[in-house]
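User: Reviewer 2 asked us to show a designed sequence for the structure in our supplementary figure. I'm pasting the structure tokens here. Could you produce the per-position amino acids so we can include them in the response letter?
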């Protein structure tokens, strides 16, 4: 059939009222997203070191070869992942991912890992994983026969392929050590473990553990804690006050008022923010609970009876996200607390926008500006995180002994005092 015949056929179809099959809008969608992402998130791309021209060249070539809706979905998801944005994602899609579950739930192996500069350790092992011989502090040399750090790095890339964004490298590896270990129920994963004597053995796990792949925060918290919402509080074995904030609900200021009142007089307080998943509340009201009533400090004001005015240590890790790292960062940046942590926070605290592709197939949310732009010397939080005053890495020996290195270190700081000049706030008489 020559070109003239094809044109005649199409003309006849139009005249007859038949639908005309037009070219798929894949290229147009990708071009639109490349422009919109750069126009709205270009400043963050510079902070994150993204070579957007190289990304654009790659995806233009891929879009030209895309032939199916499913391939288009995968391509758009990959492109969204290139933003390195923990908040970015496809929020509405007229194309569904293939159902790979076959009726199985998505679950974990009852194990969480952690990365140190030179090795990978078991962070936690629960129930039958512990019965199988896994324990916090053990070194993991291989996962499914692959060097452990290589496996985790590959897992990060596979998550990005499905559109999962990570605002920083610390957030990416932290996520791989938790969510990245999960898969469909019944699938297996093998950990090669090396003990303190250098003996190596393999432990195979079948994923059957429910949603335990989510981060949970402190490795070995103080005993006999009380709970309010998702928060826990009590005293350490040293007699210090301890609060773990698991999230940031709207009523967090009220929760803090109750926790601080119940703790009573303490010589020091540990505010553990590890694995705080964020949320939303009045941040200034939170800070106000750590000032005396009527006291002003750097734009904040204490408005509550019984506000805590003693020395404060904040603990963070790469699992502290969004509003969690905004609040944690306020205490450090505004001179109220000394901050320690395994790493900087996740670096995903931002203002967001949404765009819908010309095809109408996808609506995508992504970050366009950092929250707390005054943090980090004017660079904000997004793509950076809040770095602690002091990086404190969990000790393998402590973990093997069921001891939380960071809580112990925080207790030592509260006993001996902070490094000179690190925390300007000095109590009730400070202004």
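Assistant: Here is a per-position design you can include in the supplement:
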């Amino acid at each position: 059939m020559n070109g003239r015949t094809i044109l005649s056929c199409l003309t006849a179809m139009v005249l007859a009222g038949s639908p005309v099959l037009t070219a798929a809008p894949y290229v147009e969608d990708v071009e639109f997203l490349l422009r919109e992402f750069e126009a709205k998130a270009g400043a963050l791309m510079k902070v994150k070191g993204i070579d957007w021209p190289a990304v654009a060249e790659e995806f233009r070539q891929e879009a030209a070869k895309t032939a199916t809706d499913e391939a288009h979905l995968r391509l758009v998801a990959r492109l969204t992942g290139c933003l390195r944005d923990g908040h970015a994602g496809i929020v509405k899609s007229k194309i569904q991912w293939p159902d790979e579950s076959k009726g199985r739930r998505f679950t974990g192996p009852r194990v969480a890992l952690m990365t140190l500069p030179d090795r990978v350790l078991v962070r936690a092992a629960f129930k039958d994983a512990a019965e199988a011989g896994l324990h916090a502090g053990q070194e993991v040399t291989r996962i499914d026969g692959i060097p452990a750090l290589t496996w985790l790095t590959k897992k990060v890339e596979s998550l990005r392929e499905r559109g999962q964004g990570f605002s920083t490298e610390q957030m990416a590896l932290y996520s791989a050590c938790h969510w990245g270990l999960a898969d469909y129920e019944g699938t297996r994963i093998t950990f090669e473990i090396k003990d303190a004597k250098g003996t190596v053995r393999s432990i195979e796990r079948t994923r059957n553990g429910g949603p335990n792949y989510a981060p949970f925060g402190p490795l070995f918290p103080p005993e006999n804690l009380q709970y309010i919402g998702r928060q826990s509080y009590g005293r350490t074995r040293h007699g210090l006050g301890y609060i773990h904030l698991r999230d940031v609900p709207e009523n967090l200021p009220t929760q803090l008022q109750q926790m601080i009142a119940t703790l009573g007089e303490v010589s020091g307080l540990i505010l553990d923010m590890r694995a705080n998943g964020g949320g939303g509340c009045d941040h200034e009201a939170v800070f106000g609970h750590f000032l005396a009533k009527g006291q002003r400090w750097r734009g904040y004001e204490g408005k509550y009876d019984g506000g805590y005015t003693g020395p404060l240590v904040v603990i963070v890790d790469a699992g502290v996200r969004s509003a969690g790292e905004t609040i944690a960062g306020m205490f450090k940046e505004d001179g109220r607390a000394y901050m320690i942590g395994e790493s900087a926070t996740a670096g995903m605290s931002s203002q967001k926008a949404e765009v819908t592709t010309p095809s109408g197939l996808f609506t995508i949310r992504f970050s366009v500006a950092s929250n707390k732009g005054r943090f980090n010397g004017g660079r904000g939080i997004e793509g950076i995180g809040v770095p602690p005053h002091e990086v404190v890495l969990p000790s393998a020996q402590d973990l093997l002994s069921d001891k939380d290195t960071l809580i112990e270190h925080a207790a030592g700081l509260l006993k001996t005092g902070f490094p000179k000049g690190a925390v300007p706030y000095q109590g009730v008489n400070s202004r």
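For the response letter, you might also mention the following. The radius of gyration is 25 Å. The CA atoms of residues 295 and 302 lie 5 Å apart.
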